[in-house]
Amino acid sequence: MENIVITIARHFGSGGKTVGKMLSEDLGIGYYEHEIIKMASEESGIAEELFNQADEKLKRTPLFFGKQKKGEYQGKLIRPGSDEFVSDHNLFNYQAKIIRELADHESCVIIGRAADYVLKGRKNVVSVFVHASHEYCVQQAIERRAYIGKDVEKFVERTDKYRSDFYRYYTGQIWTDARNYDLCLNSERLGFEGTMRAIEEYIKVRFGELPGKKSAPVF
Predict the structure, then answer these.
(1) What CATH number is associated with residue 123?
(2) What is the pLDDT of residues 117-165, one digit of tens each?
(3) pLDDT tens digits for 93-127?
């Protein structure tokens, strides 16, 4: 069967990352998150540290002024020798190149990095947004020790704001707009296992079988 790629965007604390890892293990397919930055660094020859610094800079910088779009992804790489070679949007372009190549060659799960937008229009992609109530996400962050600090609630809010800003900065789209995704799933209602199963059932209905597994065709 054709490669099937599952992209997962998620509220911090909703368990989207955990669900992605569970999918990867259950289906026996690849899982990519931070690995994408490392691979983009190797592909471009740009130090991995610069990719991480770009993310940190976006966390600290106001990105939008009215309706202005800053670095909407166009897919074109800037080659070495240009002053813009290590610009924020070119660093993203190299990550996008890795995401596209992964989708070309294997079934896998990709977490974040606006992968749903980068792969928009591809028939072999299932884009998912995992969400939950703010209270649930805060409680999960506490229970899983995702943040060691006094104000977990503010940390959850800041992280989601960064993810929203990141998405809009590079895509010009609204991160939480359900129209950007095939599935929007509430992990608070379904649980992590149920969320994973819901994604798998969607794949079986849409494609007739699961990637990495021998599944009975759906008629």
Answers:
(1) 3.40.50.300
(2) 999 999 999 999 999 999 999 999 998 876 666 789 999 999 999 999 9
(3) 999 999 999 999 999 999 999 999 999 999 999 99
Tally the domains of the chain: 1
Using a 10 angstrom Cβ sphere, with 0-12 exposed, 13-18 middle and 19 or more buried, the burial of residue 176 is: middle
SS (H, E, C) the chain: CCCCEEEEEECCCCCHHHHHHHHHHHHCCEEECCHHHHHHHHHHCCCHHHHHHHHHHHHHCCCCCCCCCCCCCCCCCCCCCCCCCCCHHHHHHHHHHHHHHHHHHCCEEEECCCHHHHCCCCCCEEEEEEECCHHHHHHHHHHCCCCCCCCHHHHHHHHHHHHHHHHHHHHCCCCCCHHHCCEEEEHHHHHHHHHHHHHHHHHHHHHCCCCCCCCCCCC
**166 CB neighbour count, 10 Å cutoff:** 19
Which range of residues forms the domain containing residue 149?
5-207
> How far apart are alpha carbons 5 and 91 in whole angstroms?
22
